[in-house]
Amino acid sequence: MRALPALSVRRHSGAAMTAQIARSVLARDGLGGGMDRFWAWYADRSAQVVHRTERIPLDALKGWSRHPVTGTVSHHTGRFFSIEGLDVHIPGAPVPRWSQPIVNQPEVGILGFLVKERHGVLHCLVQAKFEPGNPGGLQLSPTVQATRSNYTRVHGGKAIPYLEHFRDTAERQVVADVLQSEQGSWFYRKRNRNMIVQVFDEVPLREDFHWLTLGQLHRLLGVENLVNMDARTVLACLPFASEGAHPLADAEPAGADGPGGGHPVVPARPDGGEGRVDAGFHHSLVRSCAAAEGSLHSTVDIVSWIADLRSRTDVVTHPAALNTLPHWYERDGAIAHESGRFLEVMAVDVTAASREVPGWSQPMIEPKDQGVAAFLVRRIDGVLHVLAHARVEPGYVDVVEIAPTVQCTPGSLHALPAEARPRFLDAVLEAPPERVRYATALAEEGGRFYHAVNTYMIVEADRDIPDGGEYRWLTLHQLVGLLRHSHYVNVQARTLVACLHSLSVGSPVTRSAVPSAPPRR
């Protein structure tokens, strides 16, 4: 009998990586020219990358067809994605039945950051990327942001740079690797692989890519519509939390000198404040990142809460014909709701020299109004907690995910019953300026959604709010722990986790406009 190979057991600790992350967070100016060097690179790429997006009628799409019976819009290869109709029934919900268009993209894409220590400080390799739905121009994306159809080159175009680091992780360190959902109201059971891979050898730097510290990225999260959704969701998956005292516990909060390093795109605070950091808030946030500081509820209780809601909530969905959906009509070359609210299915023709193919056309989802996604937060025994909402959406793989306290499109509330108004919407929209810790308009995924923007907010509650039912108070270390697993924290909450991390040593001065809501009925 052959002898078994000798094996040995070793301890695995994330403490070293958390310390690396902390050092990178503290490097808010970066290295070698810092923010000025970044803005010069970004301006150069914005000037050099030629792109154009033109709205066209759905019937003018090239390479796409509409099913003669159902009206489903799909690519001639059968790949990429399709736009279909969906019937939804959620018994007991404020709106128990409805029909809608939805994006069906069953393949799993890769969203990945390469990270590397440079001069002893961890850096992330960002890409200046054009997407047809971006409001404005280029946005900062992960190193790799690609669907399976793109990286297998179904389109016959150029290869994806740096993809090999994520397809073969041998001799590299995987920092994070998890399947995460995307918008469950617009995508049907969509998942992407969120990855962070540390490299140790030199990586050739292409012209559309730039190394940034986490501290620099955190400052840029305060610039409207700059750091894209895919970058934000991957950043949220960083192992930011610690078991013992957090490495940032003794760090002094930095002054709020502007998220973009004084770059003119950053608006001033409307209340005239100087953006001084509240040291008490800073320390409560950092304590929230350390498991040793405790939490209101145990993580076992939180997981049990989600499991119970999933087991008791019925979400019944059926494919439906897109061209005969009740209350939806085709007009002016797009499919729209009779109320003029919610969303439209529209089409664009695209020119983009920097992409894998120089031109294409595609259908897109266009939201009709700007949304709000907000966490209410409070300090409990000096440890910051966020009020999480267990949210049901028809496109989730597993019925319920942890969502922001408030996640809605205020402009669409006119077309919904009064019961559909989010419970804490007024507490968010009417918060005094000194309670608003973060408020920045950030775009959603620009490859499928056209000018989809939410104002992301972190608001410190000014009163005691007990939890229960669909709401629970969680710490940041609990959210980070759940993010190691699939389908617990939704994509909007992941953006807010990244934004909370950005407040760990600084305070953006940006205050974006917040959409107004109709009066309570």
From TrEMBL:
Cited InterPro entries: EvaA-like, EvaA-like_sf
A Pfam family hit: Hexose_dehydrat
Positions of region (Disordered): 248-274
Domain dTDP-4-dehydro-6-deoxy-alpha-D-glucopyranose 2,3-dehydratase: 38-238, 301-500
Name recorded for this polypeptide: NDP-hexose 2,3-dehydratase family protein
